[in-house]
Write a structure and sequence with these properties.
By secondary structure, the chain is α+β, with helices and mostly antiparallel strands. It is built from 2 helices and 5 strands, in the order βαβββαβ. The longest helix has 8 residues. The protein is globular. Bound molecules: iron/sulfur cluster.
Length: about 60
């Protein structure tokens, strides 16, 4: 499965997504930013579930 990842403007920069999936997410100017726009790593889903404000959007391809 390939996941298309984006982070919307609701991100509050809490870092939870980076805690569970630092291969994919990083903080840039206080907001989470995907290092890759697409991945097959399951931790992207864990990051989405960990986000307190539902800022991570994942589309399965
Ligand atoms: S878990 Fe959500 S709010 Fe926290 S840094 Fe990641 S995208 Fe932003």
């Amino acid at each position: 499965m390939t996941y298309k990842i984006s982070v919307n403007d609701d991100c509050i920069g809490c870092g939870a997504c980076i805690g569970v999936c630092n291969e994919i997410f990083e903080l840039v100017d206080g907001k989470s930013k995907p290092k890759l726009s697409e991945t097959n790593k399951e931790c992207a889903i864990e990051a989405k579930d960990a986000c307190p404000v539902e800022a991570i959007e994942i589309e399965e391809k």
